[in-house]
């Protein structure tokens, strides 16, 4: 167990979200309980999962087995793409609670806007109902471009608490981060390590050498110094531990600027305007 203090960031409704969490995309369902147990033992208290990952049950089993108090945990899940219709969203959320073995989640997100499907405003209506019922302490979106955000805010009541978007040194996504900030929406940076490839970037390796940290730690530190929330994923115990040890180092402004300058608009995942796959 670790006593490493994890800073929190206030959401727009006052709920505090731990700035460092643990991602679970691509963790196979049968491995999830053990991997999330390792993360909880290291000290992570914020877990990011999704209906699409098919591993909510394993996450829930690890949470239950940990014996940790519910109030000490922050659990996010996300609405799958097939369920943007109002009643489908409500039913899918009930299913998530059942799989997670929880009475509420801390954050529930629309996973993708699916612009060609054009039902995210309807889905948000369901999320607002869930929020008002207290079964999600906060609600937000993921992969929303500025036009999706503006349309949502023009047509609905609750401003999203977060927008979870792809951000890493090779994809600054600054325009979306700026619109998020303008509206008090916290940016969550997904694939914060660029899924591992950018860790061999010479600039990142040079800074890592200088500050006595690993490239992954330097990249995660860059994210938190910019104010974003991150949840690196790993199935490797040594890396799960490594990624947690980022609060005993401070990058200089020049180091942060050098990493920010690596932006080359390179995505590891789909562009939100082009992602319309409902899996049906
Ligand atoms: N909202 C969305 O649409 C969306 C999309 C993608 C991701 N996410 C969320 O964001 C989380 C993180 O993103 P991600 O999983 O795509 O990518 P990531 O966290 O940027 O990178 C994960 C990859 O990096 C490797 N890795 C982890 N720590 C490392 C270290 N210290 N040194 C070297 N390699 C390391 C992992 O390998 P091993 O596992 O083999 O150790 C894995 O291959 C996801 O798990 C998910 O919760 C959300």
Question: What does this molecule look like?
Answer:
- This is 2,5-diketo-D-gluconate reductase A.
- With 280 residues, the protein is an alpha/beta fold.
- The protein has a single domain, classed as TIM Barrel (Alpha-Beta Barrel), CATH 3.20.20.
- The chain is built from ten helices and ten strands.
- An eight-stranded parallel beta sheet has the order 3-4-5-6-7-8-9-10.
- Helix 6 links the parallel strand 8 and strand 9.
- The structure holds NADP nicotinamide-adenine-dinucleotide phosphate (NAP).
- The site of NADP nicotinamide-adenine-dinucleotide phosphate (NAP) has 27 residues, from helix 9.
Quick summary:
The protein is of the alpha/beta class and 280 residues long.
User: Into which percent range does the helicity of residues fall?
Assistant: 25-40%
Full CATH superfamily name: NADP-dependent oxidoreductase domain
- Estimated radius of gyration: 18 Å
Q: What is the C-level CATH assignment? A: Alpha Beta
Bound molecules: NADP nicotinamide-adenine-dinucleotide phosphate
Chain-averaged pLDDT: 97
Structural class: alpha/beta
Give the percentage of residues in beta strands. 5-15%
Quote the CATH topology.
TIM Barrel
Keywords: NADP, Oxidoreductase
Enzyme class: oxidoreductase
EC number: 1.1.1.346
Organism: Isoptericola halotolerans
């Amino acid at each position: 167990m670790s006593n490493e203090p994890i800073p929190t960031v206030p959401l727009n409704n006052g709920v505090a979200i731990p700035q460092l969490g643990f991602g679970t995309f691509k963790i196979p369902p049968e491995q999830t309980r053990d991997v999330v147990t390792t993360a909880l033992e290291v000290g992570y208290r914020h877990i990011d999962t999704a209906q699409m990952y098919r591993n909510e049950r394993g996450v829930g089993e690890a949470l239950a087995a940990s014996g940790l108090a519910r109030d000490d945990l922050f659990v996010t899940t996300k609405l799958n793409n097939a369920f943007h219709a109002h009643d489908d969203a409500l039913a899918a959320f009930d299913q998530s609670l059942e799989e997670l073995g929880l009475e509420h989640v801390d954050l529930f997100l629309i996973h993708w806007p699916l612009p060609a499907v054009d039902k995210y405003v309807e889905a948000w209506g369901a999320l607002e109902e869930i929020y008002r019922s207290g079964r999600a302490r906060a609600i937000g979106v993921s992969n929303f471009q500025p036009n999706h955000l503006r349309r949502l805010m023009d047509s609905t009541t609750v401003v999203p608490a977060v927008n979870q978007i792809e951000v890493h040194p090779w994809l600054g996504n600054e325009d979306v981060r700026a619109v998020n900030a303008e509206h008090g929406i916290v940016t969550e940076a997904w694939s914060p390590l660029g899924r591992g490839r950018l860790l061999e970037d010479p600039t990142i390796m040079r800074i890592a050498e200088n500050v006595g940290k690993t490239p992954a730690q330097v990249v995660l530190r860059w994210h938190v110094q910019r104010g974003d929330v991150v949840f690196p994923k790993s199935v490797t115990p040594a890396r799960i531990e490594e990624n947690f040890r980022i609060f005993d180092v401070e990058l200089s402004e020049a180091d942060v600027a050098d990493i920010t300058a690596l932006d080359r608009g390179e995505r590891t995942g789909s562009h939100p305007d082009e992602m319309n796959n409902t899996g049906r």
